Amino acid sequence: MCGRIVQKSGPMDYVERIFPNQRAIFFDPAGPRYNIPPGTRPLTMHRLAGDFEVDRQWWTWRPTGSKYAMNCARLDKILGNKWPWKMLTGHGRILVPADGWYEWKALEDSPKPPKQPYYIHARDGGALFFAGLTAWRAGAEKDEAHGFAIVTNDAAGGMVDVHDRRPVALPADLAIHWMDPDFPTTQAVALLEHGLPETVFTWHPVRQEVGNSKYQLPDAIDPI
Fold first, then answer.
1. Tens of pLDDT, residues 125-148
2. Distance CA 202, CA 11 (A)
3. Are strands 148-153 and 166-167 parallel, antiparallel or unpaired?
4. Known catalytic residue: 2?
């Protein structure tokens, strides 16, 4: 996962996929986003303060004392209870809703191969729910020190013609448990091994302009 996601749907479009009877109204003035990079604030869904919330959090986390800022959390490190993710699995589980994400593949026929961007999404066009881990707490600043990372599986296989690594997208029934603060941590972490399989996804090449995260036009995801 190279660090670009798409959130073209409205907040309730995502919420209703896992809470069909949800009646809350979430006002979000940002509108559709077709090219969201780390270092910005995508929509997130969570229960960090108990009640279900949809808000915008900072995508990238720099642990205290670390010189590295991270936008992805490797699944093998989480399963191994490794630093720094073991600090977040108990009380920092969130969902990052999305319609898809981008990857770049080198074009092998060129002496200095440019990279072709691809848009990856669910075959049925449905919303995806990426597992995330955040250091944010109620009342904290929504900045790099309290940001989040998306869980990625570097050994997932599938889609190898684009990228071996991919975000862990949880089915709706498991996504609910992932963000439940009362769901046991060990069981929540185990859910990460049950992300959607590669057969759920499809992908196609898109225009080179998406290499610039300022390119936010709807045709960013159109096949070329």
1. 999 999 999 999 988 999 999 999
2. 23
3. antiparallel
4. yes
